[in-house]
Amino acid sequence: MNSPTSAIGLRLRLKRAKTNMTIEQLSLLAGVNKGTISGIETGKRSPQNRTLMKLAKALKVEIEELLNE
Q1: What backbone phi and psi angles, to 5 degrees, belong to 15?
Q2: What are the DSSP calls for 1-16, one per residue?
Q3: With the C-alpha atoms ordered 52, 58, 63, 65, is the resulting torsion angle positive or negative?
Q4: Shortest CA distance to 56 belongs to which of 34, 37, 30, 31?
Q5: According to the model, what pLDDT value does residue 1 have?
Q6: Distance CA 48, CA 58 (A)
Q7: Does this model's pTM top 0.85?
Q8: For residues 55 and 26, is the Cβ–Cβ distance under 8 A?
Q9: Residue 61: closest CA among 17, 28, 24
C-alpha cells in the first residue's frame, strides 16, 4: 500500500475497526454505498472529498485523520 489512495483506505479501515463498525453500518451512517467504502479501503477507488467528509463525520473523526498519517 504505497499510493495516497491506498493509505487513505488503510486509515479508514483502521478507524472503522477501532469503532467495531462493519462496512454496512458505516454505509448506513454515512450515506455512502458499501461498494464505495470497500473500494476505498482496498485502494481500488479514489475517494472524493465529499465522500471522505461523510465517512469522517460518521466515524466521529476529523477528515485530516483520514488524509494524514
Answers
A1: -65, -40
A2: --SHHHHHHHHHHHHH
A3: negative
A4: 30
A5: 46
A6: 16
A7: yes
A8: yes
A9: 17
User: 40-52, pLDDT tens digit by residue?
Assistant: 999 999 999 999 9
Q: Which domains does the chain have, with CATH numbers?
A: 4-60 (1.10.260.40)
Calpha distance 3→22 (Å, rounded):
24
| pLDDT tens sequence across 5-40 | 899 999 999 999 999 999 999 999 999 999 999 999
pLDDT score at 4: 80
CA separation for the pair 32, 9 (Å, rounded):
14
What is the CB-side half-sphere exposure of residue 25 using CA atoms within 13 A?
A: 8
